[in-house]
Write a structure and sequence with these properties.
- The chain is of the alpha/beta class.
- It has two domains: about 20-195 and about 425-465, Aminopeptidase (3-Layer(aba) Sandwich), CATH 3.40.630; about 220-370, Alpha-Beta Plaits (2-Layer Sandwich).
- The protein is built from 15 helices and 19 strands.
- It has helices spanning about 1-15, 30-40, 50-60, 130-150, 175-185, 245-255, 265-275, 280-285, 295-300, 305-310, 345-360, 380-395, 410-415, 435-440, 450-465; strands spanning about 20-25, 25-30, 65-70, 80, 90-95, 120, 120-125, 155-165, 185-190, 195-200, 210-215, 220-230, 315-320, 330-340, 365-370, 400-405, 420-425, 430, 445-450.
- Strands 3-4-8-5-9-17 form a six-stranded mixed β-sheet, with helices on both faces. It has a four-stranded mixed β-sheet with strand order 16-11-10-18. Strands 13-14-12-15 form a four-stranded antiparallel β-sheet, covered by helices on one side.
- The longest helix has 19 residues, at about 450-465.
- It starts with a helix and ends with a helix.
- The structure holds zinc ion.
- Zinc ion binds near residues 97, 166 and 193.
């Protein structure tokens, strides 16, 4: 009997040995358990230090080489690599952010937002998806690489790079790392947060499984508009010109003007892929957007999420006047405009035509935030092919398409330095769990547990293809 028990225990241990685990404080945990622990390390933007130290310790315990990269004002950044950075190897970087957005009204959460509750096959809490869930999938694969390649001579390094304040784009996060550690990191490829795969988004083929790998970002150009016009002040006598009136007239021109649709390489590729999956005239129009401009453009304008990939956008996000009193005429009006430019748009040309549409030289236009120009990363590199191959291995019926993201994230900072960057998350969101996406930056954020291991395996395969190409 005793022999049988021992045999059972040995077998049990052997079968467990196949499960991937991460070491923490002398115990071994599965990816979702580590994610649960990480969620419990509160890290709202600007207060990442404690969570960052916890994560750094975790990496250290799993035999990664650590390089601290700044910890001012509550921020915390570090890299954790398979080989020491000082060896100067070309580096494949998995970029992620430690910070999370605030939780809003925590009474609206089913489980406390920092509990990391594991329930119903999901891990719950702020950051479960964005970006702690994605980061733990990356980390699992980097730790796997240490175990696989520790004694091999690999021609590149593999690094997990955790930074602060991606959500607020403060100075102490990725920008700080780029300013102070870019050469040391020696990146040849950066993989950052991006879209997961989806099933069931296309009406004509609900079984279609599509993975977008982001090769480009639109570029934010945020503007402040100010108009100052001294007036008599009392609302009973309407002056011929006053700041609110001038601003509203000018704004109505810029916001009602249609931005031209531009068929550039990165956005037409997506249309062409969709075209292959459609039938009839819809298919022809999508496959040949230039030739079918006439019917395609009005259709595209009906879909803001698609339109945002086809044109520059101009969105009025705030209007304020000096006073907020009904019978007082303010002398100054301010507006904020969120413009997003396609990668090929020249900022100065854009600003010139923007000011022309405003048609009011008294309005002062200031750029309050912008990112440097960045060209799309090529989708013909060995890296891209290996990503595509690895996704197809995990999800055999998947279509992998290069896409552009309408929003900006930290990856863009590396791209603006000429580094090849791809953003994607190799997990598949099926129609049953479609709401995973709607809970990001919202109440009850979660990630299904079985997605995590699949994501890790896909990254593992990608790295394997680079080490031993088929
Ligand atoms: Zn994020």
């Amino acid at each position: 009997m005793k022999y049988l028990i021992v045999l059972f225990l040995v077998l049990k241990k052997l079968s467990f040995a196949q499960d991937f685990t991460i070491k923490n404080n002398g115990n071994y945990f599965k990816i979702h358990e580590i994610l649960s622990q990480y969620i419990q390390q509160k890290s709202i933007s600007g207060n990442e230090k404690a969570a960052g130290e916890w994560l750094k310790n975790l990496c250290e315990q799993n035999d990664l080489f650590i390089t601290p990269m700044g910890d001012k004002d509550g921020n915390y950044n570090f890299s954790a690599s398979v080989r020491p950075l000082k060896e100067g190897l070309p580096n494949i970087i998995f970029l992620n952010h430690i910070d999370v957005v605030p939780v809003g009204d925590s009474s609206k959460w089913n489980y406390p937002p920092f509990s990391g509750m594991i329930m119903d096959g999901k891990v719950w809490g702020r950051g479960a998806f964005d970006n702690k869930g994605a980061a733990m999938v990356q980390l699992a694969s980097v730790i796997q690489s240490v175990r696989n390649y520790k004694n091999n001579k690999i021609p590149f390094n593999i690094t997990f790079l955790a930074v602060s304040c991606e959500e607020t784009q403060c100075e102490g996060g990725a920008s700080y790392v780029l300013k102070n550690h870019f050469e040391e990191l020696n990146p040849v490829l950066v993989i950052g947060e991006g879209p997961p795969g989806f099933k069931g988004i296309l009406e004509s083929d609900t079984n279609l499984l599509m993975f977008g790998v982001s090769v480009a970002h639109k570029r934010p150009l945020w503007l402040k508009l100010e108009l100052e016009l001294p007036t008599s002040g009392h609302g009973s006598v309407t002056p011929l010109e006053y700041s609110n009136k001038g601003m509203v007239i000018a704004l109505s021109k810029v916001v009602s003007e249609d931005q031209p649709i531009e068929f550039i390489e990165v956005n037409t590729q997506l249309l062409k892929t969709l075209g292959k999956l459609e039938n009839g005239i819809k298919s022809s129009a999508l496959k040949h957007p230039h030739a079918f401009k006439g019917i395609l453009i009005p259709k595209l304008r009906e879909r803001p999420e698609v339109l945002s990939l086809m044109s520059n956008t101009v969105t009025l996000t705030s209007i304020q006047s000096e006073t907020n009193t009904v019978n007082l005429i303010p002398t100054k009006t301010t507006a904020l405009i969120d413009c997003r430019l396609l990668p090929n748009t020249d900022k100065n040309n854009f600003l010139k035509s923007f000011k022309k549409s405003l048609d009011n030289d008294s309005i002062k236009v200031t750029v309050i935030y912008e990112t440097p120009p960045m060209l799309p990363s090529s989708d013909t590199t060995l890296f891209y092919h290996s990503i595509s191959k690895s996704i197809k291995k995990s999800y055999p019926s998947a279509e992998v398409v290069p896409v552009m993201m309408p929003s900006f994230n930290d990856v863009g900072l590396f791209r603006s330095k000429g580094v090849t960057c791809y953003s994607y998350f190799p997990i598949l969101i099926d129609s049953e769990h479609f709401n995973t996406i709607t809970h990001i930056h919202n109440y009850d954020e979660f990630i299904p547990i079985n997605y995590l291991e699949m994501g890790k395996n896909t990254y593992d395969e990608f790295l394997r293809l680079l080490v031993n190409p088929d």
